[in-house]
Amino acid sequence: MNAWPYPNWIAHRGAGKLAPENTLAAFRLGAQHGYRMFECDVKLSADGLPFLLHDATLDRTTNGRGPANTQNWNDLAALDAGSWHSPDFAGESLPSLQTLAEFCLSQGLLLNIEIKPSPGQESQTGTVVANTAACLWQNADVPPLLSSFSPDALAAAKAAQPQLPRGLLLDSLRPGWLDCAIALGCQTVICNHKLWTPRTVSQVHDAGMRALSYTVNDEASAQKLIEMGTDGIITDAVDQFQPDRAGESQTFQARRKTN
Length: 259
Ligand code: G3P
Ligand code: MG
What we know:
Bound molecules: SN-glycerol-3-phosphate, magnesium ion
Number of domains: 1
CATH class: Alpha Beta
Order of helices and strands: EHEEHHEHEHEHEHEHE
Distance between the termini: 36 Å
CATH topology: TIM Barrel
Strand content: 15-25%
Helix content: 25-40%
């Protein structure tokens, strides 16, 4: 298997549900909980700028309305992406990928960029995210891990910046899933954690890839995945799980926090 520079524990959308997802406040909080790597969701504004948002629409996590890809970045940047969560986070803004990159690079934090295209923009988003990431991380020791549920987005990312590591996200083991990940030159398959079995873990490892899971929030599930030999967990429960310290990746454990 290729070298794998990433820690075993990855904080989902910054700090799970403890802060407004995909905002800088969330990444700050996740880092305060000891996490050194984060997952985020990235899509394009109407004028083509990559920024953080999970949903196709603005309604759930901002004070904006409607599809996210019909508004220019200047308008998106003025939205309140924190008040929906709680008053403490009022005024928190949507970060651009550049802003998050600068935060991560300045703090020595690693990133898993989930390419989350607005409908119909799969290839365009894969291309822009890969090119932007390659530029932002050009001097970094460890590149961001690009992942997506969309094979088209990953194929575009591969065509644009083949050196950036890729992961295929799977919510079901559809026919041809393993061949798809291999054809996309993925370094990892990132599954809904309920999909992993000893057989699927072996299939992925035998193909030279790592087996990662999302989104694991209880200790029993985490322990089962670790015992099965999987290689990483994306979690919301940053206040429950103690991430392994740098250099201790071989001691992948579901350690509960004591404080
Ligand atoms: O990247 C792992 C996970 O974030 C995928 O699901 O819907 O939370 O983006 P979702
Ligand atoms: Mg995601």
